[in-house]
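About this split. The held-out portion is used to measure sequence recovery: a designer receives only the C-alpha cells and must propose an amino acid at every position. Recovery is the fraction of positions where the proposal matches the reference. Here is one held-out target exactly as it appears in the evaluation file.
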C-alpha cells in the first residue's frame, strides 16, 4: 500500500484548504513558539505541499527544507516564493525542496532543529517510519511537531462525512481499503512518541471560525476534493454521491442551505529528541 500524493489536488488545494486571513501568520507564530525557534533554526517539513504552513516561515527568513511526493504541489510553493522575493528584494529566503518519500528521507542524521508534519501522516500507511525518519534527522534536543486543523465540535460537516462512509459501506466498498492503513489518529501518534521516550505534549493554539452549509459539505465530497474519496472506484463513487445528495436533503431539510459556524483550532503535538 502506498502513500497518497496530492498531484490531483494542485489546482484547488489552496482555495479549499487555505486559512482565513491572518490565521496562517498566527499558526506560524505558534510553530515558532512551540519549537523555541531562533533565527538560526533549521526547519524540515515532511509533506510540505503548497507551503500553506511553510510559506509564512520561509518569508520570515528561516532556513526551510521540504519534501513531498508531489512535484506539482511544491511548484506552487516555489512560485509563491519567487513572487515574494520579487516584491521583497531585501528578503533573504532559504528554501530547499526535494521530491521524495517521508519514510526514506534524503538527509543526514542530526541535521535539523525542527521537523514538522501537518496533515500528512494519515496519508502514509507506514507513518511510524516517517516519524522515525523525522527523529533520525533531528539534532539531539531538536523538536518534532505534528500539527492539524481540528474542529472543536461536531456538526453538519461531520454528519455528512459519516453519512457518506455509511453509504460507501452499504455499496460494498470496504473503507479499510482506502489506501491509508487506518487513520493515524492523534492518540496513536501520541502513544508512539511516548513509547520512544520523546516526551510528547499536546498544545492547543490558534482558534478561528469557518462557515459552511450542509450542501457545501456534500459538494466537497461530490467534487472529490477530499482525499478519502480518491481511492473509491468511479462507479461506486458516482452512486454514493447520488445517494448522499438525496439522504442529505431529507436529513437537513430547511437547514440544507443554512450556513453553520464551526470553531477550528490548530493543534500541535510536540516531542523532544533526547540529547
Ligand atoms: C494534505 S497535504 C498537506 C500539505 C501541507 N503540510 C499543509 O498542511 O498544507 C499532504 C501532502 O503530503 C504529501 N505526501 C503524502 N504522502 C507523502 C509521503 N509519503 N512523503 C512525502 N509527501 C507525502 C502529498 O503529496 C501532499 O502534498
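Reference sequence for scoring:
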Amino acid at each position: 500500500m502506498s502513500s497518497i500524493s496530492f498531484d490531483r489536488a494542485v489546482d484547488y488545494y489552496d482555495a479549499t484548504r487555505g486559512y482565513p486571513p491572518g490565521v496562517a501568520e498566527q499558526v506560524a507564530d505558534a510553530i515558532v513558539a512551540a519549537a523555541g525557534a531562533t533565527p538560526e533554526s533549521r526547519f524540515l517539513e515532511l509533506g510540505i505541499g503548497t507551503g500553506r504552513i511553510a510559506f509564512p516561515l520561509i518569508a520570515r527568513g528561516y532556513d526551510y527544507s521540504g519534501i513531498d511526493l508531489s512535484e506539482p504541489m511544491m511548484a506552487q510553493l516555489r512560485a509563491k516564493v519567487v513572487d515574494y522575493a520579487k516584491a521583497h528584494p531585501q528578503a533573504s529566503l532559504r528554501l530547499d525542496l526535494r521530491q521524495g518519500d517521508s519514510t526514506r528521507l534524503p538527509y543526514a542524521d542530526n541535521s535539523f532543529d525542527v521537523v514538522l508534519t501537518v496533515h500528512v501522516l494519515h496519508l502514509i500507511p507506514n507513518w511510524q517510519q516517517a516519524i522515525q525518519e523525522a527523529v533520525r534527522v533531528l539534532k539531539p534536543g531538536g523538536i518534532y511537531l505534528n500539527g492539524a486543523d481540528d474542529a472543536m465540535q461536531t456538526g453538519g460537516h461531520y454528519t455528512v462525512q459519516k453519512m457518506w462512509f455509511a453509504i460507501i459501506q452499504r455499496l460494498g466498498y470496504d473503507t479499510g481499503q482506502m489506501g491509508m492503513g487506518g487513520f493515524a489518529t492523534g492518540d496513536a501518534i501520541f502513544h508512539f512518541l511516548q513509547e520512544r521516550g520523546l516526551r510528547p505534549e499536546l498544545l492547543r493554539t490558534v482558534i478561528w471560525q469557518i462557515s459552511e452549509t450542509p450542501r457545501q459539505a456534500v459538494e466537497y465530497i461530490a467534487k472529490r476534493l477530499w482525499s478519502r474519496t480518491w481511492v473509491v472506484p468511479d462507479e461506486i463513487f458516482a452512486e454514493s454521491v447520488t445517494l448522499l445528495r438525496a439522504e442529505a436533503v431529507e436529513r437537513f431539510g430547511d437547514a440544507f442551505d443554512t450556513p453553520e459556524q464551526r470553531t477550528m483550532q490548530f493543534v500541535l503535538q510536540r516531542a523532544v529528541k533526547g540529547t
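Annotator remark: DSSP finds nine helices and seven strands in the chain.
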